[in-house]
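Worked example 2:
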Amino acid sequence: MCNDARSRLKWKVELLSYLNVFSPLVKKPVMKLVHEMVYGILSSGSLKLSDIARSLKEKTHLHHTSKRLSRMLIKHKLWMTIEEMVLSRMSRHVLDDMVLAIDPGDLDRRFSKQCECIGKIRDGSTGDIISGYPLMSVVARGGKNRLTIPLFLRAYSHEEYGCNSENNAIISAMSHVRQKVGDKLWVIDRGGDRGELWKHWLNNEYQMLVRVTKQRHWSWRNEFLNAQSIAKKLPCKHTCLLRKHGSKTVKFGITTVRLRSHPNTPLSMIVVRHGKKEPMVLVSTRHIRGRRQGMALIQAYMDRWAVEEGFRFSKQGFDLEGVMARKLNVIKNLVAFTLLAWSFLVEHEQAADDLKELGKHDRLKDSISKKKPNQERKRVVFPFYAILKGWKMLFALAKTALTKFIRNPNKPKPDKQLSLAGFSSQGVFL
């Protein structure tokens, strides 16, 4: 118990010191809100204000704490400040060999019809058209540790004033991140194969890797063919591993194509035969000279799955789709706080061995009994589930939260001793 108390004190200090960068940017009451929200999200694993208020363990009524948090989230637009702070902190961890994955997501609110500026979106898991808010996420993946680094996460609405289209949201997010991290290789899935996006990328010299579809014709060997028609005719002479640490081997071929709108700009096309009915076709603005560069781009595209891992962690780890707020500004603030809480876990991932072991304690009991004698343990690529679970288990038995740290910690206590008429509280006659 003594060690648990010391660990809780250590992580409280780490959290407060990490969030102190907000001090010159916001006022003191808003700073207290930031501390309480991030602590509550990590301790409860939820974005519901009732769960966050319960984890704060204040002496006031739970309903009063929830109303105070709700009132502050409605009043203040913190999401832009949080996005700027997280991007500045996380850009230091982006290395030269990392790739940037961008992907639109969805926030399911089909049962909340009274939400502000709610619109129709496509559910990525089922393909149905539902009510909700679109999300935009950018993560970095690569390096020796293969760690996923969150850079950008925003909720928006097509019904709000000033939001024109998803294309503008993608361009805005990429431009915002590019200013901080510089020129890196961007990876996007088939939804990014759009004429307006290609025009912006080529005019602004982005390094892109896009999985293309059949919806356009490419100039190839004096013909105009779609991607799958080119893939049928192109011989695949090279072999490589589909993933860097995987075992599946695929065949691929490399050729040069051009867009109709940019006939003077050569693009590299990679056709990958990976055992499915139709081959995977990738197009990059980088010039590919041989097998090694082609293999590097194929494995870079497979790192794009990191952005899907980020969406899943936000929805499962922090219960993003369980948000009960109806104001758009509150939803944006809560999504930004999700990004801030995740960035704190990334910043302290190497120092969180105690939280990892605590979070994996229950899983290890089952895995050891089912594990074969000569079977090796798989390397964990996404450790944030274990860290978050360890944080929740550590602070589940805490009697106090951050009250002593952020609620006037240096204010002198008033003297409760009553004084007689003509005498001070120290017994001195006046």
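The radius of gyration is 26 Å. DSSP finds 15 helices and twelve strands in the chain.
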